């Protein structure tokens, strides 16, 4: 089991729940938009949020942002150790750095001292695009160079007395990403931050992350996740929740079982299922809904659900707690189903 690390009011590792992370697209100095973005992410189910800190104005904004949001904040910093120290003093809960690009040993020690005195966590991350040259020359571009580059930076922090560390080794190649985290998990007890970097636009990115993150979590590798997408960051959170739900890791949600439809379907099952899914996507309650398109699989799936509908061209059957509850005309049945769903959710 991995080590437990505290990030604000959230713990990761050590058997704690898998925390969902995302990143804002605004500079922290743009306080209004940054706060709004964080609140949207929090509402969607994000546990930890990161932003890029590039200027002193960004550092100064952290205190203001911190007062207006409820989830832990992570400052992503490269090249300037002073921004790391300033972000810590301004109240961030974690910093994301690579000691190798912060500067001299003296500067690294200054950051390490600030980390130790404040108790904030540190994420050390390697991406395939930022592997240190010595490891590329020795091993080539593969999981070994990616992980050894990260572990070298971890060793630098450990040398300076820092041990509240989280590690990531991200690749845009799904298979390399999986091999990298397997390699790392066998060599460290620090919590692992999983993700496929530069995964692409929404559709392709969700597929890549689902395979990479899902396969690792199914074998108990990983403690926190970010689904990186070239899309609205809120979509990252929904995708992450979907992965956790599909694996049975997150249980307090409304599962919507829906028919893929075929030539037997004679009503708008797809449209109705989409409306139901939109209604329940943010509900935190263990509940199962079935929206089925015909009499072949409809009754069986509906009987397994807390609330179900099996529809046809003219009529539909409503199921409740696994039993037939009501038979109605299809239009009347849709309205009745919504009413029953609201009662069950409230």
Explained architecture:
By secondary structure, this protein is α/β, with parallel strands linked by helices. It folds into two domains: 5-246, TIM Barrel (Alpha-Beta Barrel), CATH 3.20.20; 254-345, Sulfite Reductase Hemoprotein, domain 1, CATH 3.30.413. The chain contains twelve helices and 15 strands. It has helices spanning 31-44, 56-68, 81-90, 105-118, 133-139, 143-159, 174-185, 202-217, 233-246, 269-280, 298-303, 330-345, and strands at residues 5-7, 10-12, 19-23, 48-52, 73-76, 94-97, 121-127, 165-170, 193-194, 224-226, 254-258, 287-292, 307-311, 315-320, 323-329. The strands form three sheets. Strands 8-7-6-5-4-3-10-9 form an eight-stranded parallel sheet. Helix 11 (298-303) links the parallel strand 12 and strand 13. Helix 2 (56-68) runs parallel beside helix 3 (81-90), helix 6 crosses helix 7 and helix 8 runs parallel beside helix 9 (233-246).
């Amino acid at each position: 089991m991995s080590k437990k690390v505290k990030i604000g009011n959230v713990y990761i590792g050590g058997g704690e729940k898998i925390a969902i992370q995302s990143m804002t697209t605004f500079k922290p100095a743009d306080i209004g938009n940054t706060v709004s973005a964080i609140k949207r992410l929090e509402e969607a189910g994000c546990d930890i949020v990161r932003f890029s800190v590039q200027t002193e104005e960004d550092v100064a904004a952290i205190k203001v942002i911190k007062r207006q949001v409820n989830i832990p904040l992570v400052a992503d910093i490269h090249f300037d150790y002073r921004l790391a120290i300033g972000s810590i003093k301004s109240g961030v809960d974690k910093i994301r750095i690579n000691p190798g690009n912060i500067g001299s040993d003296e500067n690294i020690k200054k950051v390490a001292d600030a980390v130790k005195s404040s108790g904030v966590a540190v994420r050390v991350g390697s991406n395939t695009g930022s592997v240190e040259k010595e490891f590329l020359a020795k091993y080539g571009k593969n999981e070994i160079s990616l992980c050894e580059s990260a572990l070298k930076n971890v060793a630098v922090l450990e040398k300076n007395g820092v041990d509240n560390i989280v590690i990531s080794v991200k690749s845009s190649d799904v298979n390399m990403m999986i091999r990298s985290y397997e390699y790392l998990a066998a060599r460290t007890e620090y919590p692992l931050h999983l993700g496929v970097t530069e995964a692409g636009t929404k559709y392709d990115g969700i597929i890549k992350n689902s395979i990479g993150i899902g396969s690792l979590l199914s074998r108990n590798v990983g403690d926190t996740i970010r689904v990186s997408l070239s899309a609205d960051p809120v979509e990252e959170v929904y995708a992450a929740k979907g992965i956790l739900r599909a694996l049975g890791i997150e249980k307090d949600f409304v599962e919507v079982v829906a028919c893929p439809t075929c030539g037997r379907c004679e009503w708008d099952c797809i449209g109705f299922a989409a409306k139901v899914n939109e209604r329940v996507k943010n509900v935190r309650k263990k509940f199962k809904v079935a929206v089925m398109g015909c009499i072949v699989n409809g009754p069986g799936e509906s009987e397994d659900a807390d609330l179900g509908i099996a529809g046809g061209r003219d009529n539909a059957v409503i199921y409740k707690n696994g039993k037939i509850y009501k038979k109605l005309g299809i239009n009347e049945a849709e309205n009745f189903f919504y009413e029953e769903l609201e009662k069950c959710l409230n």
